[in-house]
Specification:
The protein has helices at 7-37, 40-48, 56-81, 84-114, 124-164, 169-203, 209-234, 237-262, 267-270, 274-300, 307-310, 318-321. It has twelve helices and no strands. The longest helix is centred in the middle third of the chain and has 41 residues, at 124-164. By secondary structure, it is mainly alpha-helical. It is flat, with a radius of gyration of 23 Å.
């Protein structure tokens, strides 16, 4: 089991951990205030207007719990693999969570206005505001600290790069494309599941057939992403063609959902979380388009000598595991046990 072993790897992990604890504490407290203020009339208003405003803050809390835990997992994974690309991606993810905190403020303001008169606490917005402002402030500070430490990690991981990197620049570019593609798959999963969580909690009724289909899509998505990585490592052309076809299907699905949020008979069901769903859907569409482009680039690099560099292999110690995704230099003899790339 990997454990950080330098000042900057520990610093990066602790920044994300402390940020997660503070943000989740604020979210939980805001959730408690909101739930305590709801009355039976609140649920009747939400039902009559076909707008599930009572579910707004539970949705944000659920998403932040998932987001913070998943971010911690990706941090551990990035440090274990000494993957600077993923570290940079995590800083961008934090910016995304910061933007989402701003969306949360706006949507909760709308929810309290819609439920005004049915809440037991008529000053709920004044009670919620300090915590809703504090959350983006914490995330903003966390992003700055993460970016500073990420720069230090870039230098730290670069030392390994200079010691072990191949002299073949074309091979470096191919491997860099592979690394970006694999990292992007991990972020694809977050935004897809983030969209799904909001969609299930607020929009879809459990009696709706779409509820079961959406639930079933989650494990299917996990399998698709795992197979995408597997077939890329194995340089399987037919598998990659199939995966790219599924990417286009996913792209069509999210574009369909975007259009459906603003046009059609079910527009009112999306209103409580339409802004956050739109943000997640747009980001997911951008990521899917990028993933398709990188998948095609990886496929074009098949049978050009990259496979031995990324093939799975056993390592003898935990220290060596940190370099499992690093690329060895095959040009000057047998394949060494480790190598990295920036």
């Amino acid at each position: 089991m990997y454990k950080p072993n330098t000042l900057w790897t520990w610093a990066f992990l602790l920044i994300v951990f402390v940020q997660a604890i503070i943000v989740l504490a604020f979210e939980a407290y805001a959730f408690a205030i909101f739930e305590e203020s709801l009355t039976s009339q609140s649920f009747l208003v939400a039902q009559n207007d076909v707008n599930a405003y009572t579910k707004t803050i539970p949705t944000f809390l659920t998403l932040y719990i998932f987001g913070m835990i998943y971010q911690l997992v990706l941090v551990w994974d990035a440090l274990r693999l000494k993957n600077t690309i993923q570290v940079i991606g995590l800083c961008l993810l934090n910016i995304g969570l910061l933007i989402y905190a701003g969306v949360q403020w706006d949507q909760l303001n709308t929810a309290t206005e819609m439920l005004q008169g049915t809440l037991s606490n008529q000053h709920i917005w004044e009670d919620l505001t300090p915590y809703l402002i504090a959350i983006p402030c914490v995330l903003g500070l966390g992003t700055i600290l993460m970016s500073v430490v990420a720069w230090r990690l870039y230098d730290e991981f670069a030392w390994t790069i200079y010691k072990h990197i191949s002299a073949d620049l074309r091979m470096k570019r191919r491997y860099l494309t592979f690394q970006i593609y694999i990292a992007l798959l991990k972020f694809d999963f977050f935004f897809f599941l983030g969209f799904t969580i909001q969609f299930l909690v607020v929009v879809v009724s459990r009696t709706d057939s779409e509820f079961g289909l959406t639930i079933a899509a989650v494990p299917i998505t996990i399998i698709i992403l795992l197979m995408a990585a597997f077939w890329t490592r194995r340089e399987n052309v037919f598998g990659m063609v199939f995966i790219i076809f599924l990417y286009f299907a996913a792209l069509a699905y999210f574009i369909f959902k975007l259009v459906r949020m603003y046009y059609g008979p079910k527009v009112s069901t999306y209103i409580p979380v339409r802004k956050s769903l739109t943000a997640f859907a747009v980001i997911t569409v951008i990521l899917i388009v990028s993933t398709i482009g990188l998948a095609i680039s990886c496929m074009l690099n098949f049978n050009k000598g990259l496979k031995p560099h990324i093939a799975r292999r056993k390592v003898e110690s935990e220290e060596e595991k940190g370099y499992m995704t690093e690329m060895p230099n095959l040009a000057n003899g047998p394949m060494p046990s480790r190598m990295t790339i920036d």
